[in-house]
Write a structure and sequence with these properties.
With 352 residues, the chain is mainly β. The protein contains no helices and 32 strands.
């Protein structure tokens, strides 16, 4: 692995990037969700990327947040710090760049990552305690940025030869961060200044989540060993009670998500795999654990389509939406309210 240390390189554009006048487009539902950030506390909103645009949830409706011109938004993350509730971080699908807003999307700071690769950002994770931002890309690997307020500073870069699918980080002060590709799991060392391959999972990683508990809980879904947990990223234990793992079964974890407001609450979507030469996938259920994966209970059984991503309603146990592999429209699971049919409208929203 090639680690290029870029200490001290200040990545700012020549001044801030201004969005257009605050959008007054409202949706009652979403239909092409590609990324989701649940509300990390009572002061900030949940955000979703729908069709390359950014939306914020406001009492069940989705208000479009204006973003810099010509940016196709690929992913979004927010801070867990209540004093930093208006900070939003977005990645661009059509640029090697991250944008940050500290005023809810009125102004944006442009943070270019590199001009040596063509591609885009795939995943973001924010360590709000240490003010670190981890960025996964499709062609240039992993970047570590320090958010120093007026600018963001690149401090390390791990070049990879495969796309980064997910990045997660804790915000407890432990400084833990993990990233996965289709074949490998990586653990941040020295607060993300370097990365190590986690080589003892026994199966390819399929999903990733982290919880701000004490100690920090790391969850990794696998292709056929079910759910693995760790508190240090070195020792891993299976946690398949209630998920349907039986002797001889190949239990795949399709998606994982932690409720940031109740970090002991974990959602998992599962499937069985059958066959060797030709593998058949049979979706099983979306399950919930309220005790840090010690035991899980099915919320809803699945039919013929597997889950691609889970969208928890933060602070409401049992309320979660699923994005399916054949449809990116949020589907209510458990106690989540069914979204009404999509209605785009122009609303009279007070300008701030």
């Amino acid at each position: 692995m090639l680690t290029l240390i870029l200490v001290g390189a200040v990545l700012t554009a020549t001044g801030g990037v201004f969005a257009d006048q605050k959008s007054d487009v409202v949706k009652s539902s979403l239909n092409n969700v590609r990324a989701y950030a649940p509300a990390t506390n009572d002061e900030n909103a949940a955000y979703a990327v729908d069709g390359g645009l950014l939306f914020a949830n406001d009492n069940g409706q989705w208000l479009q947040v204006n973003t810099p011109k010509d940016v196709i938004v690929s992913t979004v993350a927010t801070s867990a710090d209540m004093a930093d509730a208006e900070s939003i971080y977005i990645g661009a699908a059509n640029q090697m760049a991250v944008y940050r807003s500290t005023d809810g999307g009125v102004n944006w700071l442009h943070v270019p990552l590199t001009d040596a690769y063509v591609g885009g950002v795939t995943s973001l994770a924010v360590d709000s305690n240490l003010r670190l931002v981890y960025v996964g890309t499709d062609t240039a690997g992993l970047f570590r940025l320090r958010d120093v307020g007026p600018s963001m500073i690149a401090t390390s870069h791990l070049l990879l030869d495969e796309p980064v699918r997910e990045v997660v980080a804790d915000s407890t002060g432990a400084g833990m961060a993990f990233a996965r590709t289709d074949w490998n799991l990586y653990r941040a060392d020295n607060l993300g200044m370097s990365w190590q391959t986690v080589g003892d999972l026994g199966s390819a990683p399929t999903a990733l989540a982290i919880a701000n508990t004490a100690p920090v809980a790391v969850y990794v879904g696998t292709t056929d060993r079910g759910l693995l947990t760790s508190t240090d990223g070195v020792t891993w234990n299976t946690a398949n009670t209630g998920l349907g793992m039986v002797p001889g079964a190949r239990l795949k974890i399709d998606a994982l998500s932690v409720d940031p407001q109740q970090p002991g609450l974990l959602y998992a979507a599962t499937s069985y795999l059958f066959g060797s030469t030709t593998v058949q996938q049979t979706p099983v259920s979306v399950a919930m654990s309220t005790d840090g994966a010690a035991a899980s209970t099915p919320l809803q059984t699945l039919d013929s389509v597997a889950v691609a991503e889970l969208m928890p309603v933060a602070g409401q146990p049992g309320a979660v939406y699923a994005l399916m592999t054949n449809d990116r429209t949020p589907l209510a699971m458990g106690d989540a309210p069914v979204m009404t049919a999509e209605v785009a409208q122009v609303a009279d929203i007070a300008q701030t």
